[in-house]
Amino acid sequence: MDYTAGLDAALNRLHEEGRYRTFIDIERRNGAFPHAVWTRPDGTEQDITVWCGNDYLGMGQHPVVLAAMHEALDATGAGSGGTRNISGTTVYHKRLEAELADLHGKEAALLFTSAYIANDATLSTLPKLFPGLIIYSDELNHASMIEGIRRNGGAKRIFRHNDLDHLRELLQADDPAAPKLIAFESIYSMDGDFGPIEAFCDLADEFGALTYIDEVHAVGMYGPRGAGVAERDRLMHRIDMINGTLAKAYGVMGGYVAASAKMCDAIRSYAPGFIFTTSLPPAVAAGAAASVRHLKTDQGLRDQQQTQARILKLRLKGMGLPIIDHGSHIVPVIVGDPVHTKQLSDMLLDGYGIYVQPINFPTVPRGTERLRFTPSPVHGPDEMDRLVNAMDALWSHCALNRAELSA
């Protein structure tokens, strides 16, 4: 077996399809978000503006967050020193879990090193807790949910995206006595559309199912305290398990599940992804807790971010660019070809100092390749003008279609 040839063939397929992914070396500058420095392949540096980051509110540079991290770092050192079960549970982890439980109105929360791990570990563990469990999963759920459901060894049903009739058909076809769980997201990050949370909860009540929601792109962003779309719609009490991240709107790192005390106790006791993973550094937990605490009262940042998203969408629509607008904070511009998407991204970076990563298959379906913009409160009018003018010029230069997509 020529293993090197196998690797070459696999990588060449990506290059031929125009979807080989390139990392660029950037250094974010504290106090200057969304500006950063790009180190080119030749070693020279260029100032750039990041338009595709997930630090939606700029909390990664907020003084409250940094102060908490400095204090914890000076007090405890770098790492946690172990798994949560073996010396890795500190007062900082417990405080963060208490903040998250309070945020979502749940009895408890369980902290993981990422929201991916939280989804994977939880969803793969639930059939151990509920033998015979059937999980009903939206077809566009995140890869972490898909992987957790795939690995759990239990029964799964995939329903068409946000299709309540299809979900009902699947629920009706199964044994009424079987334990069930409906897994879905509040905001689907590639199109920026919302899940019909209340309708999912109604079906769960009707068929005796648990509910599991991924609020990764919504926590910190929606609701009067930033608990997500379920809080905005006053539905948190109807959700059994809420997954969230600390690495997007909260600007730090980590993921979690909020649920009943017994549910969290069972997951931490049975999930290998929790049991065998070193816990987050205390400084990270301290910064995340400070961010969650702060955003419970800072509605101004949320309002600014939504305003920025509306402005960018209106301006891009006004130029006839094909954007998808479902009313969320995510701004996808459809290019529809992987090579053109990569070229557009490269030209924005090289010629204008604007960084937006191309999104290609398998993250999105073929033919819907896109640039995905995430405006934030730290993007000012000058940055917005430069982006809009650059997109206008390059769209014409590349002779791309200006027919607008409908939501």
Summarize the helix and strand pattern as letters.
Answer: HEEEHHEHEHEHEEEHEHEEHHHHEHEEEH
Helix segment tally: 14
Coarse morphology: globular
How much helix, percentage-wise, in residues?
40-55%
Percent in strands = 15-25%
Largest sheet: 7 strands, mixed
Radius of gyration: 22 Å
State the low-pLDDT regions, or none: none
How many strand segments?
16
* Distance linking N and C termini: 50 Å
Q: Return the average pLDDT rounded to an integer.
A: 95
Strands across the major sheet, in which order?
4-12-11-10-7-5-6
> Helix/strand-derived class?
alpha/beta
In short:
This protein is an alpha/beta fold and 407 residues long.
Describe the SSE topology:
Blueprint (H helix, E strand, L loop, with lengths): L2 H14 L8 E4 L6 E5 L5 E6 L12 H14 L14 H14 L3 E5 L2 H15 L4 E5 L4 H9 L3 E5 L4 H10 L6 E6 L1 E2 L4 E2 L2 H11 L1 E6 L14 H4 L8 E5 L9 E5 L1 H10 L1 H4 L6 H14 L3 H20 L12 E4 L3 H15 L1 E2 L2 E2 L10 E4 L7 H17 L10
Parallel strand pairs: 3-14, 5-6, 5-7, 7-10, 10-11
Antiparallel strand pairs: 1-2, 2-3, 4-12, 8-9, 11-12, 13-16, 15-16
What descriptors fit this protein?
seven-stranded mixed β-sheet; alpha/beta; 407 residues; 17% strand; single chain
Overview of this protein structure:
- The protein has 407 residues and is of the alpha/beta class.
- It has 14 helices and 16 strands.
- Strands 4-12-11-10-7-5-6 form a 7-stranded mixed sheet, with helices on both faces. Strands 1-2-3-14 form a 4-stranded mixed sheet. Strands 13-16-15 form a 3-stranded antiparallel sheet.
- Helix 13 packs across helix 14 (381-397).
